[in-house]
Amino acid sequence: MAFDTWESYFYPPPDEGTLRNLFDERDPVVLTRLEYVETARRQRELLAGQVAIPKTYDADHVRAIHRHLFQDVYAWAGEFRSVNISKGAGRGFGDVKTGEVDQLLDDVRKRVAGTDWGRLDRDTFAERAATVFAYLNQAHPFREGNGRTGKVFMEHVAERSRFTLDFGQVTPDVWNQASQLSRPDMFSYAPEPASLVPVFRAIAAPRTSGPSTSAPPGPGRSAARASYPRAATQATNQPPQTGPQRGPQARHGGPYMPGRGSGTGQGR
């Protein structure tokens, strides 16, 4: 089946609020539970180094993470979304029609490659990691599962440094609000990572064995603590919202909605 329209991702009425899934589960509550179980298992495999994913820190790397995490849940696992999405008021996520998603992910790659992660102190690590994640978050390349994919990707980035990431050191609300505040202003391209810097400083912990390309997750850290996934039941067929984007409450959104990227289509 082709997933090329907003409606094609959903079951038809009366189940139009549920994303099509490999379980063919129409009950959104049951689907959420199944999704969490399966993606948590796959996430443990990734963080334990049990799966060989080339850590190229580019679009293919991001696709490979998503494909592994969601292979048991969605037929489009590992495929970039074909529709524009937004969340809350203001600027939408990367525009698929202008190539902005690919451009943002290329900026992620350049920022990872251009940083000597093993030499960074905690403050500088937090600044660089926040910038990388802000670009990845603005790309939001998948119809669902961007949060879990992004956190695994950042774990892989951290493996190049002297730090591990413990997402359990901040609450989901703090993480989500900082992510929302990092998004660009309307008609701008570049994210604003300042809100994420203190978050990454809080979750960065010294690595005992030094930088590694295959480091396992930190002691006592589970897949559940390493992720604040958005429930599959928060998909919606509602039209996009409009309104001012200033202030934490205005920019802290709920479920995804159809929308335009509202960007310039040009970087820098």
Automatic annotation (TrEMBL):
Indicate, by first and last residue, each region the UniProt record lists as having compositional bias (Low complexity).
220-248
Q: Which SUPFAM superfamilies match?
A: Fic-like (SSF140931)
Q: What is its EC number?
A: 2.7.7.108
KW Nucleotide-binding (keyword) present? yes
Q: Which InterPro entries match?
A: Fido (IPR003812), Fido-like_dom_sf (IPR036597)
Keyword terms, alphabetized: ATP-binding, Nucleotide-binding, Nucleotidyltransferase, Transferase
**Domain Fido per the UniProt entry, residue ranges:** 57-202
What residue spans carry the region label Disordered? 207-268
Q: What is this protein called in UniProt?
A: protein adenylyltransferase
**What organism does this protein naturally occur in?**
Arsenicicoccus bolidensis
